[in-house]
Structures are given as C-alpha cells and as structure tokens.
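It would be a great kindness if you could assist me with a short task in structural biology. The matter concerns a single protein, recorded as an amino acid sequence and a row of backbone structure tokens. Could you please explain, in whatever detail you think fit, how the structure tokens follow from the sequence? Thank you for your consideration; the sequence and its tokens are set out here:
___
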Amino acid sequence: MYRFLLTPRWWGINLFVVLAIPFCVFMGTWQLGRFEDRVQTHNAAEKQPAPGTRAAKPIDDLLPVDTATSGRPATATGRYADQFLVPGRELDGKDGFYVLNMLRTDNGKALPVVRGWLPGKPGNTAVPAAPTGTVTVTGDLQASENASTAGAHTTGGLPDGQLGIIGAASLINLVPYDVYDAWVTLQDTGGTGAGALRPVPATVPQGTGLDLKAFQNLGYTCEWFVFAGFVLFMWFRLIRREAEAARDLKLGIVAEGGADAGADGNTAASTDADAGTDPGRNADADAAERSSSGVGAGAAATGPADHGVRPGSDAKTGGA
C-alpha cells in the first residue's frame, strides 16, 4: 500500500521533509539560545552594583566598551576642542539637543564628551561655553551609537556644527585627529538654573536586558517550532490521502481512469442537451432514413425489369 513512497515524486517530498524539519528545529533552538542569553545577562546585571557607583578608571583601561564596562565612570585629561550639537534628543519627554565637545588627550586622540542637554533646537538656544585649559573629566562610559540608536539622525543634511550620530565613524570625517570609539556623558555639568546644562543619563548597552527584542527572540522560537510541526503534519496528511486513494483503487471503488471517462460522458450529454436533440428520436430518424433508402433501392431494381417486359409485349403484339 505504501509503495508509492518510493516513486520519484515522493522521493522529492521526503527529501524536503527530511531537510525542513531539522532546519526549523535548529533555527528555533538558536532563537531560544539568544533569549536565554538575554535572561542571563539581565540577571547578572541585577546582581552587580550600579555602574555609576563603581570607582572611576582611566578611559584606556575600560576599552573596548562591553556589557561589563558600559556605564562605568571613566576619567580623561585634556583640552576641549571642537564643539558639536546633537539635535533630536529627548530628556524627560521634552525635545532638545546634546552639547558635545571633543576632549583632546595627551596621546593625541580625542574623546567625545557630552557635557549636557538643553531644551529647544540648536541655534535658538544659548549654549554655555566649555571650560578652557587643561581639564580632567569623569563621565559614564558609553559605546558608539549606530543607526538603531534612539534619536539618531541618519538621513544627513544637518547644518555645520551639528552631529546626527555620536561615534567615531561619524566624527572621523569632521575632525582632523583620531577619535576614541566611545564617548562619556558628564553627570556633573557644573551649573544650575534655567539655562544650565542638564546631565544626560547613561543607557544600558544594546542587546542586553529583557527588552522588546528579547521577547521577539522568544516569539521567533515558537514560530520555528510551529513550522516544524506543520511540515510533519502535512507530510502525514499527504501519505494518508495517497494511501486511501491506492486502497480504493485496489478494491475497485474507483476505477483507474474512471473519472476521465465519466467526465467525457457528461460532456457529451451536456453537448446534446445544448443542441436540443433527443438521442432516441435521432435513432428513429436514422431507421426511417435507412428504410426509405431500402425502398428506393428496391424500386430502382424493379423498374428496369418492368420496362424490359413492356417492349417484349409490344414486340409480341406487333408480330401478331
């Protein structure tokens, strides 16, 4: 009954099932692993003290920025150089911009330092001047931003002196010196009042914590496992339908090619019905036509004989 599984058509179906199910299981397991990593990172972060409460270290000792060093206080010494305004940044639900200055250190590299946040739009709000001379700053370490960072401006077209993304990749084209692949945000802005800079809180690194993306990984896990179950279900269903068809054919319930013959008969019947003809009446008409043809043929055969008799009779009469 199941010999059909060895046909070329079913070889292709079986090969697809054998490849699809392990692939779906692998992808589901991988997504589940990503979710579990997020959970472990979140639990580990909760057990550690807040990054801002830990002792400050030199910036070079905390690089590169990772989940362990992100948010930790970092120190650097140098002189403030170029200044940039970063528009489109919110703080406490209000629109504003960051004030960023490049701190040129003794090793020649510059560290982006966000001195604070101001409400409004760049150019319409007065910006406090940066300190002059050599300064030592302590700020919370942050990784370079990317296109997916909240508030990042990726379309370009900003005026001179403004910056869309805080990162070495963006700043390297704007300044003539090397830039650290990180930045710090000062928690002590050095002023109070209506026009003073407000500190920008540090953010958790991307890819950590139980955020929306973590639960997306969990959702993808369920989807891949559902796909695997669906492929298996459809495979069993196709086998069952094929086996039932083979059994019916073997028992004679459905004759091979019977469906096509029935379809041809139905087509012929519908054609006659559309033409308005009666098969029985056509048969009677054909019989009548054949009868008429027979009578005509008989008459034709008798005719010459009758004509032949009459001349003979005339000749006999004439002789008399």
The first helix runs from residue 8 to 47. The beta strands are 57-58, 73-91, 94-105, 110-119, 134-142, 183-186. Helices lie at 8-47, 168-171, 212-251, 258-275, 279-319. Residues 245 and 251 are 10 Å apart (CA to CA).
